[in-house]
Protein backbone atom coordinates (compact mmCIF):
# COMPACT_ATOMS: atom_id res chain seq x y z
CA UNK A 1 0.00 0.00 0.00
CA UNK A 2 2.79 2.38 0.95
CA UNK A 3 4.64 1.63 -2.30
CA UNK A 4 1.48 2.31 -4.31
CA UNK A 5 0.96 5.61 -2.48
CA UNK A 6 4.55 6.68 -3.16
CA UNK A 7 4.22 5.73 -6.83
CA UNK A 8 0.99 7.70 -7.13
CA UNK A 9 2.59 10.72 -5.48
CA UNK A 10 5.57 10.58 -7.83
CA UNK A 11 3.27 10.28 -10.82
CA UNK A 12 1.23 13.31 -9.72
CA UNK A 13 4.43 15.30 -9.17
CA UNK A 14 5.73 14.33 -12.61
CA UNK A 15 2.44 15.32 -14.23
CA UNK A 16 2.41 18.63 -12.37
CA UNK A 17 5.98 19.31 -13.50
CA UNK A 18 5.11 18.42 -17.08
CA UNK A 19 2.09 20.73 -17.01
CA UNK A 20 4.17 23.54 -15.55
CA UNK A 21 6.85 22.97 -18.18
CA UNK A 22 4.24 22.98 -20.95
CA UNK A 23 3.00 26.37 -19.72
CA UNK A 24 6.30 28.02 -20.63
CA UNK A 25 5.57 30.39 -23.54
CA UNK A 26 6.89 29.27 -26.90
CA UNK A 27 5.75 32.43 -28.64
CA UNK A 28 6.58 36.02 -27.80
CA UNK A 29 5.73 39.40 -29.24
CA UNK A 30 8.87 41.24 -30.30
CA UNK A 31 8.56 45.02 -30.10
CA UNK A 32 11.08 47.10 -32.02
CA UNK A 33 11.85 50.74 -31.26
CA UNK A 34 13.39 52.79 -34.07
CA UNK A 35 14.59 56.18 -35.22
CA UNK A 36 11.97 57.69 -37.53
CA UNK A 37 14.27 60.24 -39.18
CA UNK A 38 14.60 57.85 -42.13
CA UNK A 39 12.12 55.33 -43.53
CA UNK A 40 10.86 53.92 -40.23
CA UNK A 41 7.17 54.32 -39.45
CA UNK A 42 7.44 53.91 -35.66
CA UNK A 43 7.23 50.90 -33.33
CA UNK A 44 7.13 47.52 -35.11
CA UNK A 45 5.60 44.35 -33.66
CA UNK A 46 6.58 40.82 -34.75
CA UNK A 47 5.78 37.33 -33.52
CA UNK A 48 8.85 35.40 -32.35
CA UNK A 49 9.00 31.60 -32.02
CA UNK A 50 11.48 30.41 -29.37
CA UNK A 51 11.91 26.91 -30.77
CA UNK A 52 12.92 27.95 -34.28
CA UNK A 53 13.96 31.61 -34.13
CA UNK A 54 11.46 32.45 -36.87
CA UNK A 55 9.51 35.72 -36.91
CA UNK A 56 6.28 36.99 -38.45
CA UNK A 57 5.13 40.58 -38.94
CA UNK A 58 2.10 41.69 -36.88
CA UNK A 59 1.72 45.46 -36.71
CA UNK A 60 3.28 48.92 -36.56
CA UNK A 61 2.42 51.98 -34.48
CA UNK A 62 2.81 54.87 -36.90
CA UNK A 63 3.40 58.53 -36.29
CA UNK A 64 5.64 58.11 -33.24
CA UNK A 65 8.60 60.50 -33.09
CA UNK A 66 11.87 58.58 -32.60
CA UNK A 67 10.64 55.79 -30.25
CA UNK A 68 14.24 54.75 -29.65
CA UNK A 69 13.76 52.94 -26.32
CA UNK A 70 10.78 50.96 -25.02
CA UNK A 71 9.47 49.56 -21.75
CA UNK A 72 6.70 47.00 -21.23
CA UNK A 73 4.08 47.83 -18.60
CA UNK A 74 2.08 45.74 -16.14
CA UNK A 75 0.46 42.52 -17.40
CA UNK A 76 1.94 43.26 -20.84
CA UNK A 77 -1.03 45.53 -21.55
CA UNK A 78 0.93 48.75 -21.96
CA UNK A 79 4.02 49.91 -23.82
CA UNK A 80 5.99 53.08 -23.10
CA UNK A 81 8.47 54.78 -25.40
CA UNK A 82 10.79 57.73 -25.28
CA UNK A 83 10.53 60.25 -28.08
CA UNK A 84 14.21 61.01 -28.47
CA UNK A 85 14.93 64.47 -29.79
CA UNK A 86 18.14 66.47 -29.52
CA UNK A 87 19.37 69.57 -27.76
CA UNK A 88 17.20 72.03 -29.64
CA UNK A 89 13.85 70.62 -28.45
CA UNK A 90 12.49 69.20 -25.22
CA UNK A 91 11.91 65.47 -25.25
CA UNK A 92 8.75 63.55 -24.52
CA UNK A 93 7.46 60.05 -23.74
CA UNK A 94 4.43 58.17 -25.05
CA UNK A 95 2.08 55.57 -23.59
CA UNK A 96 0.37 52.87 -25.68
CA UNK A 97 -2.23 50.21 -25.10
CA UNK A 98 -1.07 46.80 -26.26
CA UNK A 99 -2.84 43.55 -27.04
CA UNK A 100 -0.57 40.51 -26.72
CA UNK A 101 -0.82 37.94 -29.48
CA UNK A 102 -2.63 40.21 -31.95
CA UNK A 103 0.15 42.78 -31.60
CA UNK A 104 -2.30 45.68 -31.75
CA UNK A 105 -0.73 48.84 -30.37
CA UNK A 106 -2.44 52.22 -30.02
CA UNK A 107 -1.37 55.59 -28.60
CA UNK A 108 -2.92 56.57 -25.24
CA UNK A 109 -1.17 59.86 -24.58
CA UNK A 110 2.11 61.76 -24.64
CA UNK A 111 3.89 63.85 -22.01
CA UNK A 112 6.99 66.10 -22.03
CA UNK A 113 9.93 64.88 -19.96
CA UNK A 114 11.13 68.45 -19.23
CA UNK A 115 14.55 67.25 -20.41
CA UNK A 116 16.25 67.10 -23.81
CA UNK A 117 17.11 63.88 -25.62
CA UNK A 118 15.35 61.16 -23.58
CA UNK A 119 17.04 57.87 -24.48
CA UNK A 120 15.93 55.28 -21.88
CA UNK A 121 12.72 54.46 -20.03
CA UNK A 122 11.89 51.99 -17.26
CA UNK A 123 8.60 51.18 -15.51
CA UNK A 124 8.16 49.71 -12.02
CA UNK A 125 6.40 46.35 -11.57
CA UNK A 126 3.33 48.00 -10.01
CA UNK A 127 2.99 50.29 -13.04
CA UNK A 128 3.00 53.35 -10.77
CA UNK A 129 5.84 55.33 -12.36
CA UNK A 130 7.95 55.68 -15.49
CA UNK A 131 11.59 56.69 -15.07
CA UNK A 132 13.25 58.48 -17.98
CA UNK A 133 16.92 59.22 -18.68
CA UNK A 134 17.35 62.52 -20.56
CA UNK A 135 20.75 62.16 -22.21
CA UNK A 136 21.15 65.59 -23.75
CA UNK A 137 19.63 67.35 -20.74
CA UNK A 138 21.63 65.39 -18.17
CA UNK A 139 18.58 64.71 -16.01
CA UNK A 140 16.27 61.99 -14.73
CA UNK A 141 12.47 62.45 -14.95
CA UNK A 142 9.73 60.62 -13.02
CA UNK A 143 6.20 60.45 -14.44
CA UNK A 144 3.16 58.87 -12.72
CA UNK A 145 1.14 56.21 -14.55
CA UNK A 146 -2.66 56.09 -14.29
CA UNK A 147 -4.77 52.95 -13.89
CA UNK A 148 -5.61 52.96 -17.60
CA UNK A 149 -1.91 53.17 -18.50
CA UNK A 150 -1.76 56.89 -19.30
CA UNK A 151 1.23 59.01 -18.34
CA UNK A 152 0.85 62.01 -16.04
CA UNK A 153 2.98 65.15 -15.95
CA UNK A 154 6.49 64.94 -14.47
CA UNK A 155 6.37 64.91 -10.66
CA UNK A 156 10.09 64.68 -9.93
CA UNK A 157 13.24 65.76 -11.75
CA UNK A 158 16.79 64.94 -10.72
CA UNK A 159 19.24 67.23 -12.51
CA UNK A 160 22.83 66.00 -12.60
CA UNK A 161 25.79 68.38 -12.42
CA UNK A 162 29.46 68.05 -13.27
CA UNK A 163 31.81 66.96 -16.03
CA UNK A 164 34.80 64.72 -16.66
CA UNK A 165 38.05 64.51 -18.60
CA UNK A 166 36.83 64.22 -22.20
CA UNK A 167 35.95 67.76 -23.27
CA UNK A 168 34.15 66.62 -26.41
CA UNK A 169 31.88 64.04 -24.75
CA UNK A 170 31.93 64.94 -21.05
CA UNK A 171 31.64 68.72 -20.79
CA UNK A 172 28.39 68.21 -18.87
CA UNK A 173 26.15 65.44 -17.52
CA UNK A 174 24.60 62.87 -19.89
CA UNK A 175 22.21 60.47 -18.16
CA UNK A 176 22.03 57.22 -20.13
CA UNK A 177 19.97 54.66 -18.19
CA UNK A 178 17.33 54.56 -15.48
CA UNK A 179 17.16 50.98 -14.22
CA UNK A 180 15.39 49.68 -11.13
CA UNK A 181 17.28 47.13 -9.06
CA UNK A 182 15.79 43.59 -9.14
CA UNK A 183 14.10 44.14 -5.75
CA UNK A 184 13.09 47.70 -6.76
CA UNK A 185 14.56 49.15 -3.57
CA UNK A 186 16.86 51.34 -5.65
CA UNK A 187 16.94 53.11 -8.99
CA UNK A 188 20.35 53.20 -10.62
CA UNK A 189 21.09 55.65 -13.40
CA UNK A 190 24.33 56.01 -15.31
CA UNK A 191 25.84 59.35 -16.26
CA UNK A 192 28.30 59.18 -19.16
CA UNK A 193 29.26 62.82 -18.63
CA UNK A 194 30.32 62.50 -14.99
CA UNK A 195 31.58 58.87 -14.93
CA UNK A 196 29.16 57.72 -12.22
CA UNK A 197 26.44 55.19 -11.47
CA UNK A 198 24.04 57.27 -9.38
CA UNK A 199 21.89 55.42 -6.84
CA UNK A 200 18.52 56.56 -5.52
CA UNK A 201 16.29 54.91 -2.91
CA UNK A 202 12.94 53.97 -4.43
CA UNK A 203 9.58 53.93 -2.65
CA UNK A 204 6.70 53.03 -4.94
CA UNK A 205 3.44 54.98 -4.92
CA UNK A 206 4.76 58.34 -3.75
CA UNK A 207 4.60 61.48 -5.90
CA UNK A 208 8.35 61.79 -5.55
CA UNK A 209 9.52 58.18 -5.10
CA UNK A 210 13.29 58.84 -5.28
CA UNK A 211 15.71 60.02 -2.60
CA UNK A 212 19.53 59.83 -2.70
CA UNK A 213 21.09 56.68 -1.28
CA UNK A 214 24.14 56.72 0.97
CA UNK A 215 26.60 56.68 -0.69
CA UNK A 216 24.81 58.23 -3.66
CA UNK A 217 27.09 57.01 -6.45
CA UNK A 218 29.64 54.46 -7.66
CA UNK A 219 32.47 56.08 -9.60
CA UNK A 220 34.40 54.67 -12.55
CA UNK A 221 37.69 55.64 -14.17
CA UNK A 222 37.52 59.16 -15.66
CA UNK A 223 36.84 59.04 -19.39
CA UNK A 224 35.16 55.61 -19.41
CA UNK A 225 31.60 56.94 -19.88
CA UNK A 226 29.07 54.64 -18.12
CA UNK A 227 26.23 53.44 -20.38
CA UNK A 228 24.20 50.29 -19.62
CA UNK A 229 23.75 47.86 -16.71
CA UNK A 230 22.50 44.33 -16.12
CA UNK A 231 22.18 41.88 -13.21
CA UNK A 232 22.57 38.13 -12.84
CA UNK A 233 19.26 36.30 -12.23
CA UNK A 234 20.29 35.48 -8.65
CA UNK A 235 20.81 39.25 -8.03
CA UNK A 236 24.31 38.64 -6.66
CA UNK A 237 26.25 40.44 -9.38
CA UNK A 238 25.88 43.60 -11.45
CA UNK A 239 27.73 44.51 -14.63
CA UNK A 240 28.29 47.97 -16.12
CA UNK A 241 29.40 48.63 -19.70
CA UNK A 242 31.17 51.90 -20.43
CA UNK A 243 30.62 53.39 -23.88
CA UNK A 244 33.83 55.30 -24.50
CA UNK A 245 36.43 52.68 -23.56
CA UNK A 246 34.46 49.44 -23.86
CA UNK A 247 35.15 48.44 -20.25
CA UNK A 248 32.97 46.08 -18.23
CA UNK A 249 32.87 46.73 -14.48
CA UNK A 250 31.82 43.69 -12.43
CA UNK A 251 30.29 44.31 -8.99
CA UNK A 252 29.17 42.23 -6.06
CA UNK A 253 25.74 43.82 -5.82
CA UNK A 254 24.52 45.36 -2.55
CA UNK A 255 22.79 48.57 -3.56
CA UNK A 256 24.92 51.62 -2.69
CA UNK A 257 27.40 49.32 -0.90
CA UNK A 258 28.19 47.32 -4.05
CA UNK A 259 31.83 46.33 -4.36
CA UNK A 260 33.84 46.35 -7.57
CA UNK A 261 35.25 42.91 -8.39
CA UNK A 262 37.19 43.50 -11.61
CA UNK A 263 37.26 45.33 -14.93
CA UNK A 264 37.42 43.57 -18.30
CA UNK A 265 37.81 45.14 -21.74
CA UNK A 266 35.66 44.13 -24.71
CA UNK A 267 38.09 45.86 -27.10
CA UNK A 268 40.48 43.64 -29.10
CA UNK A 269 44.09 43.83 -27.94
CA UNK A 270 46.02 46.47 -29.87
CA UNK A 271 42.86 47.93 -31.42
CA UNK A 272 43.31 51.56 -32.56
CA UNK A 273 39.93 52.27 -34.16
CA UNK A 274 36.74 53.86 -32.88
CA UNK A 275 35.09 52.31 -29.80
CA UNK A 276 31.34 52.58 -29.27
CA UNK A 277 30.27 50.04 -26.65
CA UNK A 278 26.49 49.94 -26.42
CA UNK A 279 24.53 47.18 -24.72
CA UNK A 280 25.06 44.45 -22.12
CA UNK A 281 22.94 41.45 -21.07
CA UNK A 282 23.27 38.35 -18.90
CA UNK A 283 21.77 35.11 -20.24
CA UNK A 284 18.58 33.90 -18.51
CA UNK A 285 20.49 31.01 -16.89
CA UNK A 286 23.12 33.44 -15.52
CA UNK A 287 26.01 31.55 -17.12
CA UNK A 288 27.10 34.03 -19.77
CA UNK A 289 27.42 37.76 -20.37
CA UNK A 290 27.14 39.45 -23.77
CA UNK A 291 28.18 43.00 -24.74
CA UNK A 292 27.92 44.88 -28.04
CA UNK A 293 30.51 47.18 -29.56
CA UNK A 294 29.69 49.56 -32.40
CA UNK A 295 32.38 51.91 -33.71
CA UNK A 296 34.71 50.20 -36.17
CA UNK A 297 34.17 46.60 -35.01
CA UNK A 298 30.40 45.83 -34.95
CA UNK A 299 30.51 42.72 -32.82
CA UNK A 300 29.12 40.93 -29.79
CA UNK A 301 31.69 39.86 -27.19
CA UNK A 302 30.87 36.82 -25.05
CA UNK A 303 32.09 35.99 -21.53
CA UNK A 304 31.33 33.16 -19.13
CA UNK A 305 30.40 34.09 -15.55
CA UNK A 306 31.92 32.27 -12.58
CA UNK A 307 28.86 31.44 -10.45
CA UNK A 308 30.60 31.88 -7.08
CA UNK A 309 32.73 34.95 -7.79
CA UNK A 310 30.92 36.72 -10.64
CA UNK A 311 34.22 37.13 -12.51
CA UNK A 312 34.36 36.93 -16.30
CA UNK A 313 36.26 34.72 -18.73
CA UNK A 314 36.46 35.58 -22.43
CA UNK A 315 34.64 33.15 -24.74
CA UNK A 316 34.50 34.67 -28.24
CA UNK A 317 33.89 37.65 -30.50
CA UNK A 318 31.12 37.45 -33.08
CA UNK A 319 30.37 39.81 -35.95
CA UNK A 320 26.84 41.23 -35.84
CA UNK A 321 26.77 41.03 -39.66
CA UNK A 322 25.62 44.63 -39.82
CA UNK A 323 26.49 48.17 -38.79
CA UNK A 324 26.03 49.76 -35.37
CA UNK A 325 24.65 47.09 -32.99
CA UNK A 326 22.92 49.66 -30.78
CA UNK A 327 20.83 47.14 -28.86
CA UNK A 328 20.36 43.40 -28.60
CA UNK A 329 18.10 41.06 -26.64
CA UNK A 330 18.15 37.44 -25.47
CA UNK A 331 14.80 35.71 -25.75
CA UNK A 332 13.38 34.49 -22.39
CA UNK A 333 13.98 30.83 -23.30
CA UNK A 334 17.69 31.59 -23.71
CA UNK A 335 17.74 29.95 -27.14
CA UNK A 336 18.37 33.01 -29.30
CA UNK A 337 20.07 36.40 -29.29
CA UNK A 338 18.73 39.10 -31.63
CA UNK A 339 20.90 42.07 -32.64
CA UNK A 340 19.49 45.39 -33.87
CA UNK A 341 21.96 46.82 -36.41
CA UNK A 342 20.87 50.45 -36.49
CA UNK A 343 22.76 51.65 -39.57
CA UNK A 344 22.27 48.60 -41.80
CA UNK A 345 18.51 48.39 -41.18
CA UNK A 346 18.42 44.76 -40.10
CA UNK A 347 18.03 42.45 -37.13
CA UNK A 348 19.99 39.19 -37.12
CA UNK A 349 18.92 36.14 -35.13
CA UNK A 350 21.72 34.08 -33.56
CA UNK A 351 21.23 30.72 -31.86
CA UNK A 352 22.93 30.45 -28.44
CA UNK A 353 24.86 27.32 -27.54
CA UNK A 354 23.72 26.95 -23.94
CA UNK A 355 26.76 24.85 -23.00
CA UNK A 356 29.44 27.18 -24.37
CA UNK A 357 27.63 30.52 -24.70
CA UNK A 358 28.83 30.83 -28.30
CA UNK A 359 26.65 32.34 -31.02
CA UNK A 360 25.71 30.64 -34.28
CA UNK A 361 24.25 32.45 -37.26
CA UNK A 362 20.74 31.44 -38.34
CA UNK A 363 19.05 32.19 -41.68
CA UNK A 364 16.50 34.42 -39.91
CA UNK A 365 16.91 38.13 -40.66
CA UNK A 366 14.44 40.99 -40.20
CA UNK A 367 14.62 44.09 -42.38
CA UNK A 368 13.52 47.05 -40.24
CA UNK A 369 14.58 50.69 -40.78
CA UNK A 370 16.96 52.01 -38.07
CA UNK A 371 16.18 49.48 -35.30
CA UNK A 372 17.54 50.59 -31.93
CA UNK A 373 15.56 48.74 -29.22
CA UNK A 374 14.24 45.18 -28.90
CA UNK A 375 11.78 44.00 -26.22
CA UNK A 376 9.98 40.66 -25.67
CA UNK A 377 6.59 40.11 -24.08
CA UNK A 378 4.64 36.79 -23.89
CA UNK A 379 2.18 36.22 -26.72
CA UNK A 380 0.29 33.36 -25.03
UniProtKB/TrEMBL annotation:
Keyword set, alphabetical order: Carbohydrate metabolism, Glucose metabolism, Signal
GO BP, sorted A to Z: glucose metabolic process
Pfam families membership: Lactonase (PF10282)
Record's GO cellular component terms: cytosol
Keyword Signal included in the entry's annotation: yes
Signal peptide: 1-18
The protein, known as: Lactonase family protein
The species this protein was found in: Mucilaginibacter myungsuensis
